[in-house]
Design the sequence.
């Protein structure tokens, strides 16, 4: 996958289109990523002990990786990701400013 954990991304499709956030988790097998503050879902948690109350917890759900675009840390624009071979290893590159991402 071209998107990795801790990348800053912008959602380009879906109910949260236009939101920006950091990638918290990736699922390469399913082609999904979890973006902080996007695709929020509520989960009902049952009380564990007697006298305790149950809760509603907000969680960020996974989003298809095709619905997010990487924001280049150098130029600050949303961009596609390319790869270039440098010193025998693949490096990610911004397609707009042609600068190394990491």
Sequence:
């Amino acid at each position: 996958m071209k998107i990795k954990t801790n990348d800053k991304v912008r959602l380009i499709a879906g109910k949260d289109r236009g939101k920006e956030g950091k990638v918290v988790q990736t699922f390469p097998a399913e082609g999904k990523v979890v973006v902080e503050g996007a695709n929020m879902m509520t989960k009902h948690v049952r009380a564990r002990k007697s006298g305790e109350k149950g809760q509603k917890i907000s969680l960020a759900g996974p989003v298809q990786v095709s619905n997010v675009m990487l924001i280049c840390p150098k130029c600050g624009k949303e961009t596609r990701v390319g790869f270039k071979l440098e010193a025998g290893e693949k490096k990610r590159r911004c397609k707009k400013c042609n600068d190394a991402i990491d």
In short: Strands lie at 8-11, 20-27, 32-35, 40-45, 55-60, 62-64, 68-71, 78-79, 81-86, 89-94. The CA atoms of residues 60 and 92 lie 26 Å apart.
